[in-house]
TrEMBL record:
NCBIfam families reported in the protein's UniProt record: Por_Secre_tail
Residue span(s) of domain Secretion system C-terminal sorting: 444-510
UniProt xrefs under InterPro entries: 6-blade_b-propeller_TolB-like, PhoX, Secre_tail
Record keywords: Signal
Name recorded for this polypeptide: Secretion system C-terminal sorting domain-containing protein
């Protein structure tokens, strides 16, 4: 009991020193891309699915994985759907049923299916998107087409598509939001107002106000005209008939709308301001809408971050880093920090801390992504414990090293992959700690092994209870041993994979360790 009491004290003290929120970390050291995925030591990742993995209702996951939207079931942060876009031609969206196992602290897939777009004339280049507050997915087509194969008088491509992740069926293409190269949209809490941008050059900033909450089939569309450093106005765009909906870009040009070089992502901050990334201008702008529903003016348009160099403090010192080209996907965490995924430069995962200004910068680097890739996604669980994202088109020939994820699997970043990131204590959990020993000299070797492990307790003990669990937390073996100081465990008959051993003596816990069977 003395050892256990000591452990509780040490654990309590240590827990005061570790990260408490997903945005609490020390920057990784800035560097060019390598074959590894580098994140702070306070965090860990778990593979969800990767290119070529089987979908349970047929087919496999395509490549070029982009938006990775977590849709909670009944507001849950541990039970929901993951919608994964594939930026390909033809396009693809895959929906996964996913839940968190509180025993193993790992995520599991229970169903998966590719969406059928045949009823809406197909889809292509499914890029980013959003999760609506009424728990649907919006997948955005980052390509336009003048074809009309279903004779509905509308262009086949260049729309936002609403999907029900529960039924895994398309609701409809949302024609009233306009036709252009869509990257994503963001939905105001009033469930009527949408902000979006055209990922083209020239690209334009839009506001849509739905006639009815949670119904994006009709409403009024506006385009921004004004200063990039000051104020401006929302100018109405005709969007009632198919021909009007097809001509969003030409209408925007004709009213003299402000041109941006590729609007990638638009998000509403916890401060109520609207933030949007412009890839070709190396900036994230923000502004204040005079009123989300009735307002026709924009105030305080300004550069929030980017187009500058920032001093990044990391464990080895301070480095001056250029923000560089390609700020892309955006998401806010629970502390109001803005996460920015970079498509270009060194493809960093940036975090702009709450309170940042260009005059008083607060910028960190969370991740160095593998060779050849760009980080994409990104969404959080409602409680902000879990970050969901994808890694698109990593180098298939040079990323030949492996990393161990939270489930103990060896991951090589040589194909598109979707992952979950969390603090160490929230992913992989107590059972997956590789060296949770209360007895200092307890050792297990070899590990990994072909199934036979030598267990050395360090001294003679009595009334020893040994329990073996599989990766899902299910008990697969229990043994009771008499007085001894070492023994051999044989898992030769079990499948290759990750197991956990829990050892007690006289009903006192000695340790919980991970076993890797080749």
């Amino acid at each position: 009991m003395k050892n256990i009491f000591l452990f509780i004290i040490v654990f309590t003290l240590d827990s005061c020193l570790i990260a408490q929120n997903i945005g609490d970390f020390i920057s990784v050291e800035p560097s060019v891309q390598s074959s590894n995925f580098t994140i702070p030591s306070t965090h860990i990742f778990q593979k969800i699915i990767e290119e070529g993995d089987i979908l349970l209702q047929g087919g496999t996951l395509p490549g070029n994985t982009d938006f990775t939207g977590y849709v909670p079931i009944n507001g849950s942060s541990e039970n929901g759907y993951i919608s994964i876009n594939s930026e390909l031609t033809p396009g693809s969206v895959s929906i996964l049923d996913i839940n968190y196992n509180s025993t193993t602290k790992l995520w599991e897939i229970t169903d998966s299916k590719a969406i059928d777009f045949s009823g809406v004339a197909g889809s292509s280049k499914n890029c980013s998107g959003t999760v609506t507050s009424w728990n649907t997915i919006i997948s955005c087509e980052e390509i336009t087409s003048n074809s009309d194969i279903n004779n509905d008088d509308r262009n086949d491509l260049g729309w936002c598509i609403e999907i029900d992740p529960a039924s895994k069926k398309v609701i409809d293409k949302r024609w009233a939001l306009g036709n252009f190269e869509h990257e994503n949209i963001t939905v105001h809490s009033n469930e009527r107002t949408i902000y979006e941008g055209a990922d083209s050059n020239p690209g334009y900033l839009y506001k849509f106000v739905a006639d009815t909450a949670q119904d994006l089939s009709s409403g009024n569309l506006f385009v921004y005209k004004g200063s990039k450093n000051g104020s401006g106005n929302w100018i109405p765009i005709n969007n009632k008939t198919p021909s009007e909906q097809n001509s969003t870009l030409s209408q925007s040009a004709s009213v003299g709308a402000t041109a941006f070089n590729g609007i990638e992502d638009v998000e509403i901050g916890p401060d109520g301001l609207i933030y949007f990334a412009v890839k070709g201008e190396n900036k994230v702008y923000r502004f204040q809408d005079s009123d989300p529903i009735t307002g026709i003016t924009v105030h305080k348009m300004e550069t929030y971050v980017g187009d500058a160099s920032y001093n990044i403090q990391h464990t080895n010192g301070t480095s001056t880093v250029v923000w560089a080209y390609g700020n892309d996907n955006l998401a806010f965490d629970g502390e109001g920090n803005l996460w920015v995924l970079q498509d270009g430069g060194n493809n960093y995962i940036w975090v702009v801390e709450n309170g940042h200004t260009q005059g008083n910068p607060k910028v960190k680097i969370f991740g160095n992504t593998p060779l050849g890739c760009e980080p994409t996604g990104i969404t959080f669980s409602p409680d902000f414990r879990f970050l969901f994202m994808s890694i698109m088109h990593p180098n298939s020939s040079n990323n030949d090293t492996s990393q161990t994820d939270a489930s103990g699997n060896l991951i090589s970043f040589d194909k598109d992959i979707s992952i979950i990131i969390a603090l160490n204590e929230n992913l992989g959990g107590t059972l997956s700690d590789t060296n949770f020993n209360l007895v200092e000299k307890l050792s297990i070797y070899p590990n990994p092994s072909n199934g036979k492990y030598n267990i050395n307790l360090g001294k003679i003990m009595s009334d020893i209870n040994v329990e073996i669990f599989n990766l899902h937390g299910q008990l697969i073996l229990r043994e009771k041993l008499s007085v001894l100081n070492k023994f051999t465990l044989d898992l030769s008959s079990e499948a290759s994979g990750i197991y956990f051993i829990k050892i007690k003596s006289d009903n006192n816990l000695l340790g919980i360790n991970k076993l890797i069977k080749k």
